[in-house]
Structures are given as structure tokens and as C-alpha cells.
Amino acid sequence: MRLFPTLFGLALCCLAPLAARAEPSLFAARDAGGETRRLVIYSSLDTGLARPLIEAFQQGNPDVAVVYEDLLTGTLHDRIVAESRQDGATGALPRISPFPRRWICR
């Protein structure tokens, strides 16, 4: 009986890194006729839950493609810190982040 919880825990430990490396989701621009802009979003919200928000955004901004990266919170924090240290920006310019600069340890 104790073997099952141990194997289950081991399986979760092995699969967790795979979840952290999920491919970004691309929401193509609805209006590809003109110049297309790109918005990159790093978030810990599941893509399925974010989809209606992104689609509503794209209704008002049909020329914007959205690249959505669903990350674990630790990975999300580490990426923001690392990219901020590199060039002062995360994703694509302009930088929009819920983390005020004073929260990011340098």
C-alpha cells in the first residue's frame, strides 16, 4: 500500500519539469492584412483560463499577435529577474511587469 504514494510522488517529481517547459501559445493576429504587432505575456494563469481574456483583447486589437507563456511562478520570477538584468526589459519592449523595480534584487 505504501508503494503507490511513493510511485505517485516520484511520477509527479519527474513530470513537474516538463510542465515548466511548456511551449508558448501563439494567438495569431485576427487582421493579418496590415502590419502585425506582437505582445508577449509571461503568466502563471493556465492558458485555458487566459484564452477568453486574450481573445477579448484581440477583438479590440486585431493587428496584435499574442505569445502567451504559462510558467510556474518560480520560473516566471527567475525569467523576469534574468531578463531585467540583461537589458532592462522582459519579453518585448515596452516592459510591463507587476514587479516594481525595487522588488527585483540585483
TrEMBL record:
Gene3D superfamilies: Periplasmic binding protein-like II. Residues 1-22 form the signal peptide. Keywords: Signal. The keyword Signal applies. This is ABC transporter substrate-binding protein. It comes from Paracoccus cavernae.
